[in-house]
Design brief:
The chain has 322 residues and is α/β, with parallel strands linked by helices. The chain contains 13 helices and five strands. The protein has two domains: 14-163, 3-Layer(aba) Sandwich (Glutaredoxin), CATH 3.40.30; 185-321, Alpha Horseshoe (Serine Threonine Protein Phosphatase 5, Tetratricopeptide repeat). It has a five-stranded mixed β-sheet with strand order 1-3-2-4-5, sandwiched between helices.
């Protein structure tokens, strides 16, 4: 079975946004703390056997510093052991750009269930504490490497996580990661924006994200943060029951449909939100039609351009417009 495409976005998850923005800061803080404690003279192993007892320290905490790949395997499943051999070899070749954590399913039933594993081999990734599926089943080494390349790219671009490169063949004491670098002004501004969002200061967060985008218009993280902050700002004072009743009673009321779509998205009903606004664009005219179209584009930014639900909704919108 070939690895299925990874989906690194698509969930309206404010915890994920916060984690993505703060992961780089956490990584630098962790390295600095280890240096101060004199514990940074050796590099951590690139391959570990994880258990339920060590999952938090070996996987969740480390995922703030480096992508962690989890391979679920079983002794009687020969394919899973063969895949582990491939992943272990790649972990050495990638020299610290990801860490491999193997988990034997029968010894870790809780992890097996929490990750929703259907069978082995099954491979997941954890970035900044957020778990995501990579692929299930055996696969050729070159395809596995392609998936790992995607993971590493996403880790750096969306989460700011870059594993410290080590020399897998050198003695452990020679593999210390480089000293932490100072945060850039853009990183500090993003961190301030995330902190404002986390504190519930939505107005401050919106302005902070706009400040970042004024200097760096293509910053994907700031665009996502701004879209989510604006969404939360719009829905914070809404009465969900009243909004949904108004939308149901007045299908042609664009403002009512916009408010209901916002609530749909915040509630995780992504397809419903997109479908509602596509229908609104279809029925509306003039400025109201353009207002509904622009709101739909804003919600696309909340979910992320790579999500298949966004692609499907874009196609539906194009059919309506053209």
């Amino acid at each position: 079975m070939q690895p299925r495409n990874m989906s690194m976005s698509g969930v309206v998850d404010l915890a994920a946004l916060k984690a993505a923005g703060e992961a780089k800061v956490k990584a630098e803080q962790a390295r600095a703390q280890r240096q101060e404690a004199g514990a940074d003279t050796t590099a951590p192993p690139l391959v570990i056997e994880v258990t339920e007892a060590t999952f938090e320290s070996d996987v969740l905490q480390r995922s703030n510093e480096v992508p962690v790949v989890i391979s679920f395997w079983a002794d009687q499943a020969e394919q899973s052991k063969q895949l582990n051999t491939v992943l272990e070899r790649l972990a050495g070749e990638y020299r610290g750009r990801f860490v491999l954590a193997t988990a034997e399913v029968y010894a870790n039933q809780m992890l097996f269930q929490q990750f929703g594993v259907q069978g082995v081999p099954a491979v997941f990734a954890v970035l900044a504490g957020q778990a995501m599926p990579l692929f299930q089943g055996a696969a050729p080494e070159d395809q596995v490497a392609d998936v790992l390349d995607q993971l590493i790219e996403v880790a750096e671009q969306r989460f700011g996580i870059v594993g410290a490169e080590v020399d897998a063949g050198a003695p452990a004491e020679a593999q210390a990661p480089p000293p932490p670098r100072p945060a850039t002004p853009q990183e500090l501004a993003l961190s301030a924006a995330h902190e404002a969002l986390d504190a519930g200061d939505l107005g401050g967060a919106i302005q902070a994200y706009k400040n970042v985008l004024a200097d760096e218009p293509a910053n994907v993280e700031a665009k996502l943060g701004l879209a989510q902050a604006q969404l939360l700002h719009r829905v914070q004072d809404l009465d969900p029951r009243a909004v949904r009743e108004a939308a149901a009673n007045a299908p042609g009321d664009v403002a009512a449909q916009l408010a209901a779509a916002d609530l749909d998205l915040v509630g995780g009903q992504v397809e419903d939100a997109f479908g509602r606004l596509v229908d609104t664009v279809r029925q509306a005219a003039g400025e109201e039609r353009d207002t509904a179209r622009l709101r739909l584009l804003e919600l696309f930014d909340v979910i992320g351009p790579d999500d298949p639900r966004v692609a499907a909704a874009r196609t539906a919108l194009a059919r309506v417009l053209f």
